[in-house]
Amino acid sequence: MPSSTGYLMLAIFASGGLFLLLWWMLVRAGDEAPWLPAGLVASVVLLVALSAREVVMRRAWTRYLLENGIQDPRPKPRSSRSRRSPKKGSSSVHSTALRTIQKHAAAADSSTSPPEAHLDVAQLCQEYLASTDEAIRSGSYGSEKGIAIRAGQERVRALHKHHLLTWAKGQSRSLTYEAQQRARTFDKIETANRALDCIDSALRIYPEEPELHESKLAICEFIASIKVAHWVELAERSAFKGHYRRAIDRYRDALFYLNQDAVKPDVRAAGTEKIESEIADLQGKLRHRKTQNQ
Length: 294
Prior knowledge:
Order of helices and strands: HHHHHHHHH
Distance between the termini: 84 Å
Number of helices: 9
Structural class: mainly alpha
Radius of gyration: 31 Å
Shape: flat
Oligomer: single chain
Helix content: over 70%
Number of strands: 0
Number of domains: 3
């Protein structure tokens, strides 16, 4: 746990420094009551800092309890429930975590949920699997509890695969659509590469999934088409200005990206035929110009 006193002192000093800075700026601006807005802003910053620490520490504490398979050690009223054995307490923690995962999974599968909701479920599943694997290796469960935990792991593994693949496909589809709406070529390629990163992150866990390979191939073909269109456009501009040699070089750059493996053979053949025809036409214009100059 980080030092609460140190964090509190740092937040107080930061808000105090912000108060003095804003007060000085407002005094120079001629404000009649500079301390009022400066104090309000500093108070808000201090409140946000303290609230943020509380939220982060609660999440960290909850994750610590889940990963270690223990209950909250804070004092509780004595009762028959508080005298449960460590195995039972650990089992109840994992049962609660499993119900939480199933609840989030059902919510993520709704038609209105964004792709990030599926990623959150996949991360919860991964944490659950790591925690239960550690508990099983430590031998803290009996045979019956161990069988129940392993059955829960099988369900969570299925949920993890479903939601990770759903996130990868949904997020990559969204980013690909966003790339299509971009105006600049650089922005198109950068956004499409982000979609490709989503697919690659899922492929590292499920490398044999055919749908992921199909999605990756489609995105690579889309990126190649952007580059081909970019160089063809530059070549056409150069040809329009009479820079035939430059236009030929740019058409050849387009051919380079068109001949990548991601491009479908029929598309590659049609595009290559058209570009080579343009190159032959430009070479004829170059010869004609050379003849006239002689």
